Amino acid sequence: MKYKIIPIMKKSDILKEYRNNPVGLLLEYHNFNRPFGSYSEAQILIGMCMDNRKHLHIPDNFAFIIRSGGANLRYSEFKVSYAISVGKVRHIALIAHNHCAMVNLTARKKEFIDGLVKRAGWSKESAEEHFMNLAPMHEIGNEIDFIMSETNRLRKKYPKIQVAPLYYRVEDNRLSCLR
Ligand SMILES: [Zn+2]
To answer: Ligand 1 center to residue 53 CA distance, Å?
Structure first.
């Protein structure tokens, strides 16, 4: 693989560039149960998948969180800009996770269409069109490659903001760093 997953088992595993900043704090709160600080303003913007298997252990008011399939922020630009400009955050953590259901959407095409027909009352034609129009925008291909490309895109777009690519394993609910 092009990218490396760096497990964060102890404080010294946290990459130098994240130590003593909100990204490092996120890792410490979530992985090490660091005692919660008290916050009146958000310190970080977190982008993560809508997947129900994930839950972050972080203090109140610590973070803005945008959840979307595959942690895809391409369609949340205004919210990202808002969190930076008005919300004053200077760090973004993008969290990929394993077994993401936004990978290989084509494999779920039939289930998607049948499900909309059966559960939502759609016609088969509308459901098919819906899938064909929107699936390509939401397909992420591979979790890690996608989060790294999103990281690069956001770094270019917001050059003064630190963008940290992280990885969440649903088996043990731990965060790792990606490099
Ligand atoms: Zn996912």
So the answer is: 9
Average pLDDT over residues 80-88: 98
Confidence of residue 87 (pLDDT cuts 50, 70, 90): very high
Ligand 1 center to 70 CA (angstroms): 4
Q: Per-residue confidence at 1, pLDDT binned at 50, 70, 90?
A: low
| Residues 148-175 pLDDT 10s | 999 999 999 999 999 999 999 999 999 9
Q: Are 7 and 175 in contact (CB under 8 A)?
A: no
pTM to 2 decimal places: 0.95
Tell me how far the alpha carbon of residue 2 lies from the centroid of ligand 1, in angstroms. Answer: 20
